[in-house]
Design brief:
Blueprint: H1 3-9, E1 10-13, H2 17-23, E2 27-32, H3 38-49, E3 53-61, E4 65-68, E5 71-74, E6 78-85
Antiparallel strand pairs: 1-2, 2-6, 3-6, 4-5
Helix pairs in contact: 1-3
Amino acid sequence: MSKLRHYDVIRNPVVTEKSTMASEHGQVVFDVAIDATKPEIKAAVEALFSVKVKAVNTSIRKGKVKRFRQELGTRKDVKKAVVTLVDGQSIDISTGI
C-alpha cells in the first residue's frame, strides 16, 4: 500500500476527554475513511507512526439530521477506529506526522 493511501485511510486523530483517558491504556482514536477495513487501518498506523498494533476496533457514527434554512439535510457518517498498541508503545498525536 502506498504512503498516500495511508494518509487517505487515517483522516485525523480524535481529541476528546474519553480518547485522552483511553491513551493512558495504550489506545489511540482516529477518524478513518468510511470504506477502510481493519487490516488497512492497522497497516496505515504501523507505517505512519512506526509502532506495533495489537488490535483495531471500529464503529460508524451516523450523521445527524440538521436543518439548513427550510430544508432538512444530513451530515456525513464518520467511521471511528480505536487502535490498541502493544505494551510499551505510544503515539504522541500532538506533534503531528
